[in-house]
Amino acid sequence: MRQVVLDTETTGLNAKLGDRIIEIGCIEILDRRISERLFHAYLNPEREVELGATRVHGLTREDLMAKPKFAEVAKDFLDFVSGAEIVIHNADFDVEFLDHELGRARLGSLRDYVAKVTDTLFMARELHPGRKNSLDALCERYFIDHANRTLHGALLDARLLAECYLAMTRGQESLMMELETPQAAAAALAALQVDVSSLIVVPALPEELALHEQYLDALDKEANAGSVWRRILKAA
């Protein structure tokens, strides 16, 4: 499975009013591991950068005048994302800007080249309704170091989002899938072969068992197929 986590920075918030992309950052995930391959480009937007946007990412028109235009990097960008599942936080925003840039270059739209687009903001709202689901909030929730994120940057944000995405999707079903291969199951079984003769067993107190059941009830609500723990108990 090949996925590309993507982020952009722009001159402003409205592509329909002529705002342009000034930075693209892409991080590759292969088989749920962040690879060393990436795509990164700063772009000349051929227009002013709004002051509010500069306060977010720190880039001005003067910083970008010597950078290539989007059409000059479009082929390399499309080669990198082609055929992959694209993972974006607040995907509608970035896809609209990319589609405008691709349209200017007469190259169609992003979905013409990729397998699918996954919106991690939508995922986060489903997982954590009523809570903050910005990239910073997700980093804090999943214990991902974002101390260097004093300004937004497409490549840095794509890297942080890749780690957040893997944490968000590291669920019980994916664990069971990983153990479905004979090699993985054998390795897991071997790891469990320990000498228990000298272990001291301390039974749980009734109040501890009650708390454990409450925790499993909460897991059942989160997992569509029920918690793995209870599925194992039922199978036993």
Q: How many strands in all? A: 5
Spans of at least 5 consecutive residues with low confidence:
172-176
Give the terminus-to-terminus CA distance. 33 Å
Total helical segments? 11
Task: Describe what this molecule looks like in 3D.
It contains 11 helices and 5 strands. With 236 residues, the protein is an alpha/beta fold. Strands 3-2-1-4-5 form a 5-stranded mixed β-sheet, with helices on both faces.
Relevant terms:
236 residues, 11 helices, 5 strands
List the helices and strands and how they pair.
Layout: E1 2-10, E2 21-30, E3 33-42, H1 51-57, H2 61-64, H3 70-81, E4 85-88, H4 91-104, E5 116-119, H5 120-127, H6 135-141, H7 154-168, H8 172-178, H9 182-191, H10 206-222, H11 228-235
Parallel strand pairs: 1-4, 4-5
Antiparallel strand pairs: 1-2, 2-3
Quick recap of the structure?
This protein is of the alpha/beta class and 236 residues long.
